């Protein structure tokens, strides 16, 4: 049995005291780390599914390092994932401790406590939709051809079509790229695909694989019939993996869940 934490969408500004529409990102991160500590759970590892430093600022990553150290003190290593607002070069230098790696996608794999975690980079420069560029899909297919430990995949953009109550759909991934990704994972030992980006807690299942969008630290997004609504709500997600069963527990913090803004679809 393995328990781990999933954080997402920190959107850390260049200075700790800075505030945006959704409030002070650092205050919110500190609150959810406290919530994680209050669970009394010692995770085997934690994942942060992207959008860590707003605009990829170096100072934002320096602040992120402080929070990553605090999360590591709860138990296990922290595995960071590239988001669409992150900067690949500074992400590598500050969070992966790699030098001179340029703008190539940041993907890697680690096995911890009997679980293989495969981190992918869905940033698609210049486009709103995510994609797995370069050799990532070839690498993923090759790695998954070896049936070893149960596997968790982590990336920022959700690689599935979200069906809305009004019959519409919401898609944030390149369709052709998404189709190949889903074909690769459906016949593998992938238990779940963890994502961020949508700022909401969401679970979908396709071809025997769970696609799970984790709570965001910054805010909560509701995709309605005709509009997007952003609420002042923060959270993280706790998982327990036992054999072929995964249990998902969103942990949410809000003071009244006030509406921050509304935007038409």
Descriptive account of the structure:
This protein is of the alpha/beta class and 265 residues long. The chain has one domain (2-264): Purple Acid Phosphatase, chain A, domain 2. Helices cover 22% and strands 30% of the residues. The protein has a six-stranded mixed β-sheet, covered by helices on one side. Strands 3-2-1-14-15 form a five-stranded mixed β-sheet. Helix 2 runs parallel beside helix 3 (88-96) and helix 4 (136-144) packs parallel to helix 5 (175-186). The longest helix has 15 residues, at 58-72. The relative contact order is 0.17.
Give a brief description.
The chain is of the alpha/beta class and 265 residues long.
Which helices and strands occur, and which strands form pairs?
Blueprint: E1 2-7, H1 25-38, E2 46-48, H2 58-72, E3 78-80, H3 88-96, E4 108-112, E5 115-119, H4 136-144, E6 151-154, E7 162-163, E8 169-170, H5 175-186, E9 190-195, E10 202-206, E11 209-213, E12 220-223, E13 227-231, E14 234-242, E15 245-253, E16 259-264
Parallel strand pairs: 1-2, 2-3, 5-6, 6-9, 9-11
Antiparallel strand pairs: 1-14, 4-5, 7-8, 10-11, 12-13, 13-16, 14-15
Helix pairs in contact: 2-3, 4-5
């Amino acid at each position: 049995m393995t328990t781990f934490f999933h954080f997402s969408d920190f959107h850390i500004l260049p200075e700790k005291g800075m505030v945006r529409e959704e409030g002070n990102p650092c205050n919110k991160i500190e609150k959810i780390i406290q919530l994680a500590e209050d669970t009394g759970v010692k995770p085997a590892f934690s994942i942060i599914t992207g959008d860590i430093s707003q605009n990829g600022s170096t100072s934002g990553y320096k602040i992120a390092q402080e929070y990553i150290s605090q999360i590591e003190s709860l138990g296990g290593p922290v595995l960071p994932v590239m988001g669409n607002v992150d900067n690949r070069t500074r992400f590598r230098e500050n969070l992966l401790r790699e030098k001179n790696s340029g703008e190539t996608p940041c993907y890697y794999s680690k096995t911890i406590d009997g679980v293989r975690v495969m981190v992918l980079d869905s940033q698609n420069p210049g486009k709103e939709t995510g994609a797995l560029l370069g050799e990532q899909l070839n690498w993923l297919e090759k790695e998954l051809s070896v049936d070893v430990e149960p596997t968790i995949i982590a990336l920022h953009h959700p690689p599935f079509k979200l069906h809305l109550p009004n019959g519409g759909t919401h898609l944030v991934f390149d369709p052709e790229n998404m189709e190949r990704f889903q074909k690769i994972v459906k016949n593998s030992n992938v238990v779940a695909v963890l994502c961020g980006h949508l700022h909401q807690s969401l679970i979908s299942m396709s071809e025997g694989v769970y696609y799970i969008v984790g709570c965001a630290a910054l805010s909560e997004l509701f995709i309605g019939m005709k509009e997007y609504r952003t609420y002042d709500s923060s959270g993280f997600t706790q998982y327990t993996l036992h054999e072929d069963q995964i249990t998902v527990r969103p942990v949410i913090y809000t003071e009244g869940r006030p509406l921050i803004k509304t935007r038409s679809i």
